[in-house]
Design brief:
The protein has 395 residues and is an alpha+beta fold. Helix content is 49%, strand content 13%. The chain contains ten helices and eight strands. The chain has a four-stranded mixed sheet with strand order 1-4-5-8, covered by helices on one side. Helix 6 (218-254) runs parallel beside helix 8 (306-338) and helix 6 packs antiparallel against helix 9.
Length: 395
């Protein structure tokens, strides 16, 4: 029976577990267990496949709520939802229905394998190629970073179509765990974001040919229209949720009366930092809201336009910078005692470490450079004449 989504129950449980998840790196997958036990792995699965059918706005709200308790688990969940969306929009039948029904009924975690040694996380190219013969696809893949790799029930893996083909001729392969011989080499010891359960691993896959996903336009189109927008919006929502939690932490201590326990002095510097944090978070959330409107307003080729891609990239860049800046300023006024110290329910130091990763995840410099190239194609970049989020016509 499909578990009914219980976001409130999941966030309450994550609040209890966040400290131990951070301290241990969560080798037992407690965070994934919370998502599974509370029905959230089927949250965005379409209703026709037995899922809750949550829309994009509900997805972003849930990402922010989860991010406010354990950012690593929230980001892992966003990446799972990316894979759900890819299967829902691009997988051929009967693969689509079969896999998504399993995700909803069994609360299966879907992991993504896009990294390769020597290539990093560049999603639009692949070095290793599939062996496609007699209706069966076989390949070996080394993966330096896989979020949730030890807990995943299936993987979506980017692979080169042929050994001698170009690196950007990429297909996506659905690989059930039982057909992938996954071997975890080691957990990755990260500064923060330990709830993502990042591991290095290998897979040796042998799946039927119908597990290959190759829609018209190829994987680049899948990335531009679905994976990148949902990833950037979902991550940004999770970051704002975490930064809001940091703000609540500081404001709560600043409100305490003298003698009411550890408090933060309500001097001018504290008031300035709180004001700046609110400003930064309002800007980040406004960017997410604008990105959501544009994503929902466009379908298909409308998401290929340079202006849309630039905006979605800017959501990620702006939110990552603003949320970390807010946490950094709040930690400054909280000081060593309430900001930089671990344990005893003090969340600010953990949120600070987790948010430091935000600009590094599909790095901001790479996105800004891409935006520079796209900006040369956006012929109405300086116009506010007709359409777009501010009445701008688009090239």
């Amino acid at each position: 029976m499909t578990a009914r989504p219980d976001l409130a129950g999941a966030t309450a449980r994550l609040a209890e577990l966040a400290e131990v998840i951070d301290a241990t790196g969560d080798p037992d997958g407690r965070g994934v267990g919370v998502l599974r036990d509370h029905g959230l792995l089927g949250y965005t699965v379409p209703a026709d496949c037995g899922g809750a059918g949550a829309d994009t706005a509900a997805f972003l709200h849930a990402a922010a709520e989860l991010g406010g308790q354990c950012l690593g688990v929230a980001v892992l969940w966003v990446m799972h939802c990316q894979q759900v969306a890819v299967l829902a929009e691009y997988a051929p039948e009967p693969l689509r229905s079969r896999v998504l029904r399993s995700v909803a009924a069994e609360q299966t975690l879907l992991a993504s394998i896009t990294t390769e040694a020597g290539k990093g996380g560049h999603m639009l190219t692949a070095m290793a190629a599939i062996d496609d013969r007699d209706g069966v696809v076989r390949f070996h893949r080394d993966a330096p970073v896989v979020s949730g790799g030890a807990q995943a029930g299936a993987f979506l893996v980017t692979m080169r179509r042929t050994e001698d083909g170009p690196a950007d001729d990429v297909v996506l392969v659905h690989c059930p765990r039982e057909l992938s011989d996954p071997k975890v080499i080691a957990p990755l010891r990260m500064l923060g974001m330990r709830g993502t359960c990042n591991v290095s691993m290998t897979v040796d896959v042998e799946v039927p040919r119908d597990h290959v996903i190759e829609p018209p336009g190829g994987f680049a189109r899948v990335t531009a229209r679905t994976m990148a927008p949902l990833g950037h919006l979902g991550w940004a929502a999770a970051w704002t949720g975490a930064a809001r939690a940091a703000l609540r932490h500081v404001v709560g201590h600043a409100r305490r009366p003298a003698g009411g326990g550890p408090a933060i002095r309500r001097d001018d510097d504290t008031l300035d930092r709180i004001a700046l944090a609110r400003r930064d978070l309002d800007i980040a959330e406004a960017m997410v809201a604008a990105g959501l409107r544009e994503y929902e307003a466009r379908t298909g080729a409308g998401r290929d336009r340079p202006a849309f891609q630039i905006m979605i990239n800017n959501v990620k860049v702006a939110a990552s910078e603003r949320c970390f800046a807010a946490a950094d300023g709040l930690l400054e006024v909280a000081g060593l005692g309430l900001g930089y110290r671990q344990g005893d329910g003090l969340v600010l130091e953990r949120i600070f470490r987790d948010l430091r990763s935000a600009s590094l995840m599909y790095g901001n410099r790479r996105l800004l450079r891409a935006n520079g190239r796209l900006g040369l194609l956006d012929t109405a970049a300086c116009s506010f004449a007709a359409s777009g989020p501010l009445g701008r016509d688009e090239g």
